[in-house]
Model the fold of this input.
Amino acid sequence: MDREHAQPVAQLADVHQQPLPQPLARSRLLRAVWLTVAVLSLGVACVGVVVPGLPSTEFVLLSAWAGARGSSRFHSWLLRHRLFGPMLRNWRDGRKVSRRAKWAASVSMLLCSWLMLWTIPHRVPVWIAIGCMAGVQFWLWRRPEP
Done:
């Protein structure tokens, strides 16, 4: 039982020992702007979980990046978060992406491609979007796994 509880505590301690990627902004106004960007990005990421074609991972990464400049407390909260924390720590520790995240992104992009082909009559923009998604897939599957 102690072993189960010791590991999460060690992980939390590790989160606080990691330096922030960028120092906090010097002015209060700039910190407020960065924090606003971080919170809005996280909100868009949450919407992206249920809306096909709207990415969520990129907005979580943007939220962490902006949060590190606007609020160390918000940034630490993101790193400790049950859902977002593992993904952010993997990215921070070597640009790693889990296999589960790769599959989720692949399925989401496949569904989005199918939906666009089915509903959008103009084929050129659809094929451009599908080409962009294929490029992202190529890049994503070349990322190391944790």
